[in-house]
Write a structure and sequence with these properties.
four-stranded mixed beta sheet
Length: 382
C-alpha cells in the first residue's frame, strides 16, 4: 500500500477552501484528524478521494504550502466591514466558467461582425444617480408603466432579465456550480458579479438567493456594466458601502427599480408594513427595495430602517416556498447559461465552428440528445 506524505497545512487549507462541514469530511475520512496533525499519512487512493470530496485540484495537494488563489476580478464583498479572507472552490469555479463563456462569446461576436455596445463604460461614479438610472432604463426598455401592469414582481424580474439580454448583456442566474445540483452556491459568500466587456458584458446572479434579493443584485451588477468595471459583490438594498463604486451602484440600482420621485408621489405615509407591500405591488419590486426608498425619503431613522428591514427579511424567509414541479430542464438551461449565449453556441456548433465536446462543456450538458432538444426549444430544429 502506497502512503503519500502531504503537508498538514495543505490538508487544512483544502478543508477550509471546500466550505464543507469538517464533521462530514471526518465521517468520510475517519483518519482525517490524524492526517492534519501529521501523525498518519493517506494512501494515494484516499488522497484522490479527498481531492474530489474537497473539490481541490489533485496536484495542489503536493505543494509545500497552500497556493495563493487571487480572485480574477475586484472584490467588493465585506464581512463586518472587512474583506473576505478566501474564496471558496465553488465561487472560483463559477467565475472561471463564466470567464470561459465570455471569452468564447466575445470571439463569436467578433466573427459575426457585432459592434461594441455603446453603454458599456458610459457612466461615471461622479455622475448624477437619477440621470444614470434614467439612461439605463431607456437602454433596457425598462418601462415603469409596463411593469405596473405585470401580475407579480417575480414576473417583472423575468422581464428584467429578458430586457438585459435583449440589450446584449449575458445574464446568467444559477444557484449551483455548473450543472451540479449537489454543489449549491452560498448567497452568504456572494450575491453576484459583473464581467465587463464592450462585446460580451456578463452578469451572474446567485440563484440560491431569494427572488427579492436577485432583482436588486441584477440592477446593482448592471450598474457595474454601465461603469465598465468588473466586480464581485454582496450588495443589498439596506447597505451604504464605504467603497464609492459600490455605494454608487447601490444608489443607481435603487433608483433604477423604484425612482425616488415616483415613490414620493405614491407614498402614503406614515410608514406601515401594509403601505410597503402596496408600493411593492405598484412598482413590481420587492418590499426590501421599497423600504430602502422610504428610508431615502426620510421615512424613518437609520436605526429604525435596519430594524424594519431585518423584520421584513425574516418575514420573507418564513413564507412558504412556491411549489416545485420538477421544472423544465431546457428552460432552466436557458436561465443558467443565458438564451443569447446558448443560441450562439448552438449555431456555431451546427455550423461546425465549435466542437460538440466544447459546446457540451460550456452549456453544462452531457448528451447529444439534450443538445438537439435544447436547439429545438430555442428555435434551431436539427
Amino acid at each position: 500500500m502506497i502512503y503519500v506524505e502531504i503537508a498538514p497545512e495543505i490538508l487544512r487549507w483544502a478543508v477550509e477552501r471546500s466550505r464543507r462541514p469538517a464533521e462530514a469530511l471526518e465521517r468520510r475520512f475517519p483518519k482525517l484528524r490524524a492526517w492534519v496533525r501529521g501523525e498518519r499519512q493517506p494512501t494515494l487512493k484516499q488522497l484522490e478521494s479527498f481531492a474530489k470530496a474537497t473539490r481541490t485540484p489533485f496536484g495542489y495537494l503536493f505543494l509545500p504550502e497552500p497556493p495563493d488563489e487571487p480572485l480574477p476580478l475586484p472584490d467588493f464583498r465585506t464581512v463586518a466591514g472587512r474583506p473576505f479572507a478566501r474564496p471558496s472552490a465553488d465561487l472560483l469555479e463559477t467565475i472561471y466558467r463564466c470567464q470561459e463563456r465570455q471569452d468564447w462569446y466575445r470571439e463569436f461576436a467578433q466573427s459575426e461582425g457585432e459592434e461594441p455596445l455603446p453603454f458599456v463604460g458610459s457612466a461615471r461614479v461622479t455622475g448624477d444617480v437619477a440621470e444614470s438610472a434614467r439612461r439605463m432604463r431607456q437602454t433596457l426598455g425598462f418601462d415603469l408603466d409596463e411593469r405596473r401592469g405585470m401580475p407579480t414582481w417575480s414576473a417583472a424580474l423575468r422581464q428584467f432579465i429578458a430586457q438585459a439580454d435583449a440589450a446584449g448583456i449575458l445574464v446568467m442566474v444559477s444557484g449551483v456550480v455548473g450543472s451540479s445540483n449537489k454543489r449549491g452556491l452560498d448567497p452568504r459568500e456572494f450575491r453576484g458579479f459583473a464581467l465587463s466587456d464592450d462585446l460580451a458584458p456578463l452578469v451572474f446572479v446567485n440563484g440560491s438567493d431569494t427572488k427579492a434579493a436577485q432583482m436588486f443584485t441584477l440592477a446593482h451588477e448592471l450598474a457595474h456594466i454601465w461603469l465598465g468595471q468588473s466586480a464581485l459583490s454582496d450588495a443589498e438594498p439596506r447597505t451604504e458601502p464605504e467603497h464609492n463604486v459600490e455605494r454608487w451602484c447601490n444608489r443607481v440600482a435603487a433608483e433604477l427599480l423604484a425612482p425616488l420621485a415616483a415613490v414620493r408621489e405614491e407614498y402614503r405615509g406614515p410608514f406601515s408594513p401594509q403601505e410597503a407591500q402596496r408600493l411593492a405591488r405598484v412598482f413590481k419590486v420587492s418590499t426590501l427595495v421599497i423600504l430602502r426608498r422610504i428610508f431615502d425619503l426620510g421615512g424613518f431613522t437609520r436605526e429604525a430602517f435596519w430594524a424594519v428591514y431585518e423584520a421584513e427579511l425574516e418575514r420573507l424567509k418564513s413564507l412558504p416556498a412556491a411549489a416545485q414541479s420538477g421544472g423544465d430542464l431546457y428552460a432552466t438551461l436557458g436561465v443558467r447559461v443565458n438564451k443569447r449565449f446558448a443560441r450562439a453556441v448552438i449555431v456555431s456548433t451546427l455550423e461546425g465552428q465549435t466542437l460538440f465536446r466544447d459546446a457540451f462543456r460550456m452549456l453544462g450538458i452531457r448528451k447529444e440528445v439534450t443538445f438537439h432538444a435544447l436547439a429545438e426549444k430555442l428555435g434551431y430544429p436539427v
